[in-house]
Amino acid sequence: MDLFLLAVAVSGISLSAPLIAATAAPALAIAFWRNAMAVGALTPFALLRHRAELAGLGLRRILLSAAAGTLLALHFALWLPSLHMTSVASSTALVTTTPIWTAILLRLRGHRPPALVKAGVVVAFLGVVLLTGVDLSLSPRALFGDALALGGGVAAAGYVLIGAEVRRTVSTTAYTYVCYATTSLLLLLVCLLSGSALAGYSGGTWLKLLLLTGAAQLLGHSLINRVVRNLGPSVTSTAILLETPGAALIAALWLGQTPPAAAYPALAVILAGLALVITGDRRRTG
Hints:
By secondary structure, the chain is mainly alpha-helical.
């Protein structure tokens, strides 16, 4: 069931890039609204069914959930601007280094991943490189954009790791409610400081924002937070690499953009890497 839910989550986040590309709103404003709308959707459930749990979270779990929300906001704030400073291929390849940073952070915490997990992460990332190519520019602006995308990947790794820790004792709804609320507040501040327009959109744009919230945020990120408790951060973060070929295939079907020739073999390579990670992780915990 967790692997099925993970597949649904990856499908949801794969809609993110095509929807953002088709939405006529500033990138940071899109990031804000997808989180703010998710908070609005979660509020009735959080207050009616999880009020006691929220009230009894305690300072440590609230701070950890808020820290995860801060890292998620940092991920969006770094990655989205990088798309306008460097090539999309370079930005995508660098931001999807998340499982590599996850493995490094786990190692720093004293966890030694099995050899199969390490090999799987490398294979899966090579699949992303196969799809996106290597398109690093030496211009100062492009290099800064590359650095932002890389930082976005590191922030995402921290977000997944903290989420795995909190979800050991906190329900998905309570955790995501505090996490997304923190992300929304921080992104609102960034939008106000940067002058990103938060309103004045067409009805079609608001509809796409609602679809983005439902698919990428509530189904995507929330289900990732749901399954990370049992599957662990290594499997979850590696599976997120499937977003890249998934977005390419969705863009082909929805936006009529022909996927690159490498999309299908890249998908196979990423799936092979993910299979190695899952196998190695199960042997470790078995």
